[in-house]
């Protein structure tokens, strides 16, 4: 009797896990794709224009907006507006629905772990990040390191202070599409 129940139980557990993971994958993809479908280029410009204080105008998608310097890695990387694949091939991408660096709220930057952010796992709490734009130079101090699921949208939520959130795929040695994200959350120390 138990010889029939064990295989049936394993199949039931497998189906349950498949349905559970399918639900969260679909939910995550929907949350990520929905803002893209709702907003066109003009909507993004209007939204950014409303919240940008330091920067004179909203950058165009693909436009270079600054430089991210990571002192611990002795590396300076160009920052471009947008996070599509072509932009991330050139440097760090700025998530367009977040504020530009230096403003109050959450500025989100992303890059590939095997190119621009190689070695980012050596950067941690208390390390500094410097963003230089037309609006000035902004020194940030890393307050928190997080490792989250790739569909975790909490990295892009608004913040009460001027915050820089830097994300890349994790684990760093993973081959293919990594299941997690390595996240540095840094608070603004000084503006020049």
TrEMBL record:
Source organism, top-level taxon: Bacteria
UniProt xrefs under InterPro entries: Sortase (IPR005754), Sortase_D (IPR053525), Sortase_D_1 (IPR041999), Sortase_dom-sf (IPR023365)
Protein name: Class D sortase
Keywords: Hydrolase, Membrane, Transmembrane, Transmembrane helix
UniProt keyword annotation of Iron present: no
Residue ranges of the TM segments: 6-26
Source organism of this protein record: Ectobacillus funiculus
CDD domains per UniProt: Sortase_D_1 (cd05828)
NCBIfam families, per the entry: class_D_sortase, sortase_fam
Pfam family, one: Sortase
